[in-house]
Amino acid sequence: MTSVSSYHVQGLLGSRSSFREVPFIDGEDNLRQAIKELVSSLPEEEREAYPMDEETFLRLYRSYLKHEDNIIDWEKITQPEGLINSYDSLVQPKPSEVSTMLNKLVVIKLNGGLGTSMGCAGPKSLIPVREGKNFIDLTVEQIKELNEIYHCDVPLVLMNSFNTDNDTEQTLKKLGEKRPQIFTFEQNRFPRLSAETGLPLKFNGTYSKSDRDELWYPPGHGDVYRCFQKSGLLKKFMLSGKEWVFISNIDNLGATVDTGKSVYVSILKRL
To answer: Tell me, how does this one assemble (predicted)?
Structure first.
């Protein structure tokens, strides 16, 4: 794959030494126009495959233009008294109670990362872990076993990125029918910006789809809440009686639902 940096970068702000010096309104208008041009430069059949929450991206951009670093002073972060119970203080639920509560649960796994940091190509979740099984295989087995033991219906939801979506969908097709309910949604993709202009990078001339993907990036795990809602799955699950969602990384096989006391712990986020 050709690196973005090896291409000529075009910007609407010309030769300004720092895009942060551009007036706020002008900078945002230029960015909106540049995003529009970037999307328009894509082949027509690919444009709908580039999900982007433009307003969220612009909010981050405004913050950066205003030099809002939002640095957290961790010395001021304290545990709120009376709001978090200790594990030892929780009551052990009855098996029937566990089943009832699990039927209100959704498990979301963050599946947007590549395996490059591990020296592997493709989605991290497809790296073989044990006996030829990858992270998705083992996660599906965990959810399947949970449902069988407690006679419940906990669905598995994968948040993919544009880097992992296609390979993940192909893998899911091979799992067969004896599996839990599995849903997927794709997180946003935001345009990479030039450090010189503050505008989206552009390629000159003809370039491949893999090169085009280099112009974008998935914004990270914090994207899960908004994208989960926008996907329609949040509404779907709430209408079906789900109340809780357990969120963890797909490669964290130790992050499983504790069917003991911690059924009541606040690591399960209320829908």
So the answer is: Homooctamer.
